[in-house]
Amino acid sequence: MELIDGKLTSARIKAEIAETVAARVAEGHRAPHLVAVLVGHDGGSETYVANKVKACEACGFRSTVIRREEDVTEDELLGLIDQLNNDPEVDGFIVQLPLPRHINEQRVTEAILPSKDVDGFHPVNVGRQSIGLPCFHSATPAGIVELLKRYNIPTRGKNCVIIGRSNIVGKPLAALMMQKGIDATVTVCHSATENLAEVCRQADILVAALGRPGFVTADMVKEGATVIDVGTTRVPDSSRKSGFRLSGDVDFENVAPKCAYITPVPGGVGPMTICTLMQNTLRAALGEVY
């Protein structure tokens, strides 16, 4: 069994990005600029945004965090998005989810210019991805594909089973894994899937992305499979200073011995998600997509 180290891989990629940025700045170009809009004070969102700021520093990017209180109106938030869309100094921006209930997340997502949508959530980017056109790929799925490539894990003709059909991971990952050059045979499972364990046992590459700690057990995994764990659920743990620990969707202790490759939680897919956001921002600055 080999551990897929997302932390190490993301550090290498950020170093590659920093080299590109330094060369461009030396030629007189400005550094790429990523803006994060944070509404309210959700603990998880605060952590994610702080990690994105650190990643920007590592890549040589300029970063800005714009904060709004939870009582911000939808119209005020849409007005801010319009300003960022029209700011030539901003290459890409994200509106950190989740948003307060009184704000329509889909309306906010669709208000972002596709050319600045470095999260890859806009329907235009999702649609372009589904038919293989240049676009900003959703960060977590693209990070998973990058890990598979960098670890030289075969995908052509392999059975890839994805548990979870979310718009952020399951659906876009299925589209990516089917594309020419990756060429996997993809099955997407969800709450209505019959004989789930049996389907999962057919997987050469099994991706767990449903947000249920320890859901994937050893009897669901065939010998020699690659297992990608996307889950990051906070589980109470009184032995930790924080009072919780992060748990993946895979019963790591019992599943790992059966695997050829497996991602840990934390330190697997998570760092790659932020890394892909950096790659998308660089591509936006270079004008490679739009």
Protein model, in words:
- Helix content is 39%, strand content 18%.
- With 290 residues, it is an alpha/beta fold.
- Strands 1-11-8-7-5-6 form a six-stranded parallel beta sheet. The chain has a three-stranded parallel beta sheet with strand order 3-2-4.
- Helix 2 links the parallel strand 2 and strand 3.
- The radius of gyration is 19 Å and the shape is globular.
- The relative contact order is 0.16.
List keywords for this structure.
290 residues, alpha/beta, 6-stranded parallel sheet, 3-stranded parallel sheet, 10 helices, globular
What's the overall average pLDDT, rounded? 95
Instruction: Please summarize the sheet with the most strands.
Output: 6 strands, parallel
Give the helix/strand class: alpha/beta
Q: What portion of residues is helical?
A: 25-40%
Low-confidence stretches: none
Radius of gyration: 19 Å
- What topology, given as strand order, has the largest sheet? 1-11-8-7-5-6
Topology:
Elements: E1 2-3, H1 6-26, E2 33-39, H2 43-59, E3 62-68, H3 74-85, E4 92-95, H4 105-111, H5 123-130, H6 139-150, E5 159-163, H7 170-178, E6 185-189, H8 196-200, E7 205-208, E8 225-229, E9 233-236, E10 244-247, H9 252-255, E11 259-262, H10 269-286
Parallel strand pairs: 1-11, 2-3, 2-4, 5-6, 5-7, 7-8, 8-11
Antiparallel strand pairs: 9-10
